Amino acid sequence: MKNRSVDAVIGPPCPEAATMMAHLSTTYSVPFIGWGFVSSADFSNANKFPYATTISASSISLGYSILRLIELFEWDNLSILYTTNEVKYCDDIVDEVEGALSDVRVYNADVVYKKKIDKSRTNPFDEALNEVRQRSRSQFQERLGNDYYIGKH
């Protein structure tokens, strides 16, 4: 998170991964919004996780909430990274979220990169984050210079 200049993290919906992300958000002072099956009382402990919050929403509501958030910050390009399992739980969620994100009546944002992470690869997250950095931040970097990223002041 530190080396990639992450602005915020929305997800993951699973308790184990969300707990890890809450710890990382505290370590790197990056906002984290957990959703899905993240009902542990630990997430409401502001002393333990001051940058974490959770929401309970349908996938489509989550998509529209994300769309309003990126509208608020005037972000035009976004990337979607996700993993899958045997029941393809995340695949369905991603499809519904992406449907909301494509509603130009609300805000015209472009999903410039969508990647299903192949966890069997050696460094799948590093590969995906390098692609995100190149695609999602390229226009912003051109305006500010290569050494400056959103969230890095």
UniProtKB/TrEMBL annotation:
It comes from the Eukaryota. Residues 3-138 form the Receptor ligand binding region domain. GO terms for cellular component: membrane. Keywords: Membrane, Transmembrane, Transmembrane helix. It is found in: Membrane. This is ANF_receptor domain-containing protein. It comes from Haemonchus placei.
